[in-house]
């Protein structure tokens, strides 16, 4: 193995930061995919997979993805809530792979909620 | 490309949690994740000691920051199904505050963690100690890079002097000054040594650092090595710490492979290699001169100083020995500066100190607090108060070299200067809390037994003096104490302190002296009334039940192994003295404080004085 230089240290640090922002709690955005029985039956798993893939491909490290139970609107599943720091949360309904990808690009990365898919702005959950 | 995990479960892999089964828990999680095809989405990391050992095995889930306690392999399925898949944290497995009993899951809200400032333990529970990349991600080796490439030895020493860092191994000697003395000595061979002997009973601060963040010790040693001009380093660890030895060994190999140890580190021109030396676990080998002899392959016995090790140390070469925690504090000082370091603590005791909190306290574990924090905050806020709502009696600081601090001194700030005033010492960080079930004479005897055993035998006052003191304490606790014993103990203590060569003898009497100072009436009641009021010394107690407060719940009768307790339900019970073996189970069990202790002879009839005279003749 070649000897490390200071540049190598910095590079390793940058590479490894991703896993750590998770542990240290520094996030720009949080996505909650509702994965209750209803959500899972409607395809929430695919939505989650697509989102994770998108995040990986874009090499984004400051977006936190969590799952939660049924959002109470089972008829409109799969659903997800997107919270971008400094903006009110947005609830999206009837999601699929392509829709979540667009939400990722436009809302999470771009900061503009995708109105066509959104149900409400704001959320009753006080996290 | 490897998938980046969505959730990380940090499972505690400290010695305590491993003993509690955390490896089995890990296996169970891995199986469950694989079964649900979540293995690359959810990551499990085995960390060093989390510190909250009383609640182990512990698992923390990030990014949600959910704190699970007392995990078993059976819990894996539930957590994976509910929390990881459906996002519903499992409340019944979360931490509950002892007094309140409602689940408070988020780690930052748990009082045990809230008052702490992590510096020496900065990576506690956050990194995988067996991955150097984890350490690097948290600024690891950046301080070494700065010290080696941008600073002169004098600049390093200056920064450490500004920080006010004092040795965390017990004596509290200023670290920068020690380095400066050694730096000024001219020699082509010098040694940098790390003291990981940690012999105090009940202490596990250094073990946790070596197990949980081994690279921080190496980095501290590299920086110190450059400051003094060391050519070789040794870490002295007791063989009873196998996990610490293993993790240090892995860390050393990783650092060597990457050129962070060995020739020309980071292209700086400075070379240092570090080796582990395993000690056999003798308390005296923690003493600096004995430790050096032990590394030389000789019997570990202290020698007179001067010459001090900075001039003549290992193999008579100039050497600096520092404690594990001292080294762990060094990298942040170099990165953030000495001023940053001393922004916490008091003028003469700067920074933070790690303590191993044990005994009759709710939150047993490993903590790091700013120096100057009052003992009371540690015990009641961080420690969560005394177990089972009992009464605080004393806190023992500094292990066998330390002393017992009573209730009325609980507002004492934890600094080197203030703690010494009480007769105890900050020491290396053992903190044993005692409740009213403890007999202070027995506590003193416990520590003296330890030092008597561990005395290397070189100095007569220490070898024989501690034994004579121990015999006196044994007599007192077994009912043979006589008038004048307390004074004899005090006299002996003075002589042992004055005439011993090393710190072992010089401090061995401290536990006896402080208990005499603050709990003298307890010694007196043992000697004069033949009464151990805490009911610990079996030959000096009678247990009886107070009929006025006994509710007749029968709890005492159920635990009595002798069936010596009888009584009708809901009526006051009583103890048959002829059957009682004074195991004190009833005393500890009674929730109404109705089991009382009395003097040994409380139910014995007074022998007529004339009769005694007869017998003597
Ligand atoms: C009997 C005895 C046992 C000791 N045990 C330890 C020990 O286990 N660990 C330790 O760091 N220092 C121990 N010391 C203190 C060391 O002699 C030395 O002061 C210390 O390692 C220096 O490092 P520091 O300045 O960083 O504290 C002991 C001292 C005595 C007298």
Observed structural traits:
heterodimer, A: about 130 residues, alpha+beta, Glutaredoxin, five-stranded mixed sheet, 5 strands, about 40% helix, elongated, B: about 625 residues, alpha/beta, Rossmann fold, Ubiquitin-like (UB roll), 5 domains, four-stranded mixed sheet, 24 helices, 17 strands, globular, binds flavin mononucleotide
Question: In a few lines, what is going on in this structure?
Answer:
The complex is a heterodimer of chains A (127) and B (617). By secondary structure, chain A is of the alpha+beta class.
Can you walk me through this structure?
The complex is a heterodimer of chains A (127) and B (617). Chain A is an alpha+beta fold and 127 residues long. Chain A is elongated, with a radius of gyration of 17 Å. In chain A, helix 3 packs across helix 4. Chain A has a single domain (6-126), classed as 3-Layer(aba) Sandwich (Glutaredoxin). In chain A, 42% of the residues lie in helices and 19% in strands. In chain A, a hairpin with a 5-residue loop joins strand 3 (80-84) and strand 4 (90-92). The longest helix of chain B is centred in the C-terminal third of the chain and has 20 residues, at 510-529. In chain B, 39% of the residues lie in helices and 14% in strands. Chain B has five domains: 7-107, Glutaredoxin (3-Layer(aba) Sandwich); 132-342, NADH-ubiquinone oxidoreductase 51kDa subunit (Rossmann fold, 3-Layer(aba) Sandwich), CATH 3.40.50; 352-435, Ubiquitin-like (UB roll); 440-529, NADH-ubiquinone oxidoreductase 51kDa subunit, iron-sulphur binding domain (de novo design (two linked rop proteins), Up-down Bundle), CATH 1.20.1440; 541-616, 2-Layer Sandwich (Alpha-Beta Plaits), CATH 3.30.70.20. Chain B has 617 residues and is of the alpha/beta class. Chain B has a five-stranded mixed beta sheet. The A-B interface holds A 1-6, 9, 12-13, 15-20, 22-25, 27, 32-36, 40, 52, 55-56, 61, 64-69 and B 1, 3-8, 10, 41, 43, 62-65, 84-88, 126, 133-134, 136-139, 141-142, 145, 149, 257-260, 264, 266-267. The complex binds flavin mononucleotide. Flavin mononucleotide binds next to strand 8 and helix 20 of chain B. Residues 167-171, 173, 195, 197-199, 283-284, 286-288, 321-323, 326, 428, 502-504 of chain B line the site of flavin mononucleotide (FMN).
């Amino acid at each position: 193995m070649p000897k490390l230089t200071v540049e190598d240290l910095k590079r390793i640090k940058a590479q490894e930061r991703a896993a750590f922002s998770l542990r240290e709690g520094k996030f720009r955005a949080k996505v909650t995919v509702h994965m209750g029985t209803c959500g899972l039956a409607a395809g929430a798993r695919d939505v989650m997979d697509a989102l994770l893939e998108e995040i990986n491909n874009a090499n984004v490290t400051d977006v936190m993805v969590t799952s939660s139970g049924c959002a109470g609107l089972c008829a409109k599943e799969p659903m997800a809530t997107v919270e971008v720091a400094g903006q009110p949360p947005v609830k999206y309904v009837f999601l699929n792979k392509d829709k979540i990808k667009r939400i990722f690009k436009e809302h999470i990365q771009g900061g503009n909620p995708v109105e066509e898919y959104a149900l409400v702005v704001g959320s009753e959950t006080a996290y | 490309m490897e998938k980046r995990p969505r959730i990380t479960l940090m499972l505690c892999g400290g010695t305590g949690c491993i003993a509690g089964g955390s490896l089995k828990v890990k296996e169970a999680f891995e199986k469950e994740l694989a079964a649900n095809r979540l293995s690359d989405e959810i990551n499990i990391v085995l960390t060093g000691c989390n510190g909250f050992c009383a609640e182990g095995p512990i698992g923390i889930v990030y990014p949600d920051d959910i704190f699970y306690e007392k995990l078993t392999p059976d819990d894996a399925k539930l957590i994976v199904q509910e929390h990881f898949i459906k996002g519903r944290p499992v409340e019944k497995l979360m931490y509950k505050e002892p007094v309140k009993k409602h689940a408070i899951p988020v780690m930052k809200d748990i009082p045990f963690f809230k008052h702490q400032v992590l510096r020496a333990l900065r990576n506690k529970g956050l990194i995988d100690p067996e991955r150097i990349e984890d350490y690097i991600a948290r600024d690891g080796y950046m301080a070494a890079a700065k010290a080696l490439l941008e600073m002169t030895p004098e600049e390093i020493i200056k920064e450490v002097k500004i920080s006010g860092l004092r040795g965390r191994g017990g004596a509290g000697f200023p670290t920068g000054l020690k380095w400066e003395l050694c730096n000024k000595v001219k020699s082509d061979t010098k040694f940098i040594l790390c003291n990981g002997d940690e012999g105090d009973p009940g202490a596990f601060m250094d073990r946790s650092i070596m197990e949980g963040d081994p690279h921080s010790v190496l980095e501290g040693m590299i920086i110190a090595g450059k400051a003094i001009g060391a050519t070789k380093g040794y870490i002295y660890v007791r063989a009873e710490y196998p996990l610490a030895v293993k993790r240090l060994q892995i860390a050393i190999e990783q650092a060597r492979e990457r050129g962070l140890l060995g020739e020309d580190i980071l292209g700086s021109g400075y070379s240092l290699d570090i080796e582990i030396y395993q000690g056999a676990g003798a308390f005296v080998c923690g003493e600096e001169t004995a430790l050096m002899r032990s590394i030389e392959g000789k019997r570990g016995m202290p020698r007179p100083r001067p010459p001090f090790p900075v001039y003549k140390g290992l193999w008579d070469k100039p050497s600096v020995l520092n404690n594990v925690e001292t080294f762990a504090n060094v990298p942040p000082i170099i990165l953030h500066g000495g001023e940053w370091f001393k922004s916490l603590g008091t003028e003469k005791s700067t920074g933070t100190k790690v303590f191993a909190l044990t005994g009759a306290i709710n939150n047993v574990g490993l903590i790091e607090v700013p120096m100057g924090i009052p003992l009371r905050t540690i015990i009641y806020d961080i420690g969560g108060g005394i177990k089972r709502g009992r009464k605080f009696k004393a806190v023992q600081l500094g292990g066998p070299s330390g002393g017992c601090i009573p209730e009325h001194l609980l507002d004492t700030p934890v600094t080197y200067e203030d703690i010494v005033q009480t007769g105890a010492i900050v020491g290396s960080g053992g903190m044993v809390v005692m409740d009213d079930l403890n007999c202070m004479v027995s506590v003193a005897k416990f520590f003296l037994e330890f030092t008597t055993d561990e005395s290397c035998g070189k100095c007569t006052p220490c070898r024989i003096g501690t034994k004579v003191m121990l015999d006196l304490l044994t007599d007192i606790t077994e009912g043979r104490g006589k008038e004048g014993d307390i004074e004899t103990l005090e006299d002996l203590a003075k002589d042992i302190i004055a005439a011993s060569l090393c710190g072992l003898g010089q401090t061995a009497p401290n536990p006896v002296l402080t208990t005499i100072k603050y709990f003298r009436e307890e010694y007196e009641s043992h000697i004069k009334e033949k009464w151990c009021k805490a009911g610990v010394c079996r030959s000096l107690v009678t247990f009886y039940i107070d009929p006025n407060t006994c509710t007749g719940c029968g709890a005492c009768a159920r635990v009595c192994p002798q069936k010596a307790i009888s009584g009708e339900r809901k009526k006051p019970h009583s103890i048959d003295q002829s059957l009682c073996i004074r195991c004190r189970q009833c005393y500890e069990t009674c929730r109404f404080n109705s089991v009382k202790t009395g003097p040994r002879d409380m139910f014995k009839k007074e022998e007529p004085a004339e009769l005694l005279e007869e017998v003597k003749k």
